[in-house]
Amino acid sequence: MERTVIERSFQDRLSIFLRGNLPAVVVIGFSIVLAIFIAIETGPSQIANIIVTGGMWALLAAGLALVFGVMNIPHFAHGESFMVGAYVGYFVFTPISNYLKDNPNAVLSFIAPVVGVIAAAIVGAIMGAVIERLVFAPLRKRTRAGWVMNTFLLTVGLSFVLVYGTTLIIGPNFRGIPRYYDVPPIDFLGMRVAVDRIFAFVIAIITIAALTYFMQKTRTGRAIRAVSQDETGAQLVGINLGFIHTLTFALATAMAAMAGAALLFMFQAYPTVGLKPLYLSWYVVMMVGLGNVYGAIIGGFIVALLQTATQQFFGISWDLVVPTALMILILILVPSGIFGSEVKGIQEQ
């Protein structure tokens, strides 16, 4: 019996793709038009700022989406991971900076910020693993009924513990740095960009690229994806759920901590510094679809664009208004997000 093969033209495939992803196409198309308008009105430097900030929001949102997609945890203490990273970056970089004032060293000056970010990632990974083992693993063993609500309450409580614990131990004082690299901004294609912003963007891109490679090409990464798709099936083929959950939470926490350290020149370290990054991460995740890691990467740049447009045309005090309004509109029109993510409750997996 001969098998009939239907070959579609490029136009047909493109039409099917556009119809299946219409919300995403509309939002991305609008974002491109808005970016062009901003570049014309305010100059290309604003586009550089959007790209840099978007990379960091993408890094934060990807970790948040990873936790929800794999573990079904609405992580409302994700901002405190950012806060911990900011503190680690400050306490690691500041002594090196003070040493360099009396002992100039070009190589050490170049790698000092990198050391701070790597230290933040290590501390974040350890903190994430400890929290998952001490908080979420025992809950998972005892009950799965009402999992999402229970973990939501746990993460909110964890947020309060971390914020007020930090205030009690370290104090409420702001700790920050004026810049990582004391060099003039770089002029590129008519754009004047601070080296610190380029550094933060490079950190974000390298981390996102590494995460993508890890998830797509490694056996452990494929195991994480398998757990996110079907927990029971993953168990049947021998995947260790406890290890995957701990690793997932550690990765997400490490990424948020790296963002906090990399953006120390923009966000000083203080107990509630993670609040705004938390809001923006949730804006991204809810806009693109809960648990959609790769969509969150795109969404990070879209939210950064909306922030910049709002600050430019309405004022800096309104920078959360437009992302909030867009999120509400998308939830009304497309409840599963512009990329159509569907996430089952953990008790159904």
Task: Summarize, please.
This protein is mainly alpha-helical and 349 residues long.
Keywords:
ABC transporter involved in vitamin B12 uptake, BtuC, 349 residues
Please characterize this protein's 3D structure.
Strand 1 (186-188) and strand 2 form a beta hairpin. The chain has helices at residues 10-20, 22-42, 45-71, 78-102, 106-142, 147-169, 195-217, 219-229, 231-236, 241-262, 275-288, 293-313, 321-333, and strands at residues 186-188, 191-193. The protein has a two-stranded antiparallel ribbon with strand order 1-2. It is mainly α and 349 residues long. It is globular and about 55 Å long.
List strands and helices in order, with pairings:
Layout: H1 10-20, H2 22-42, H3 45-71, H4 78-102, H5 106-142, H6 147-169, E1 186-188, E2 191-193, H7 195-217, H8 219-229, H9 231-236, H10 241-262, H11 275-288, H12 293-313, H13 321-333
**CATH class category label:** Mainly Alpha
CATH topology: ABC transporter involved in vitamin B12 uptake, BtuC
- Please give the number of β-strands: 2
Q: Mean pLDDT score, rounded?
A: 85
Q: What structural class is derived from the secondary structure elements?
A: mainly alpha
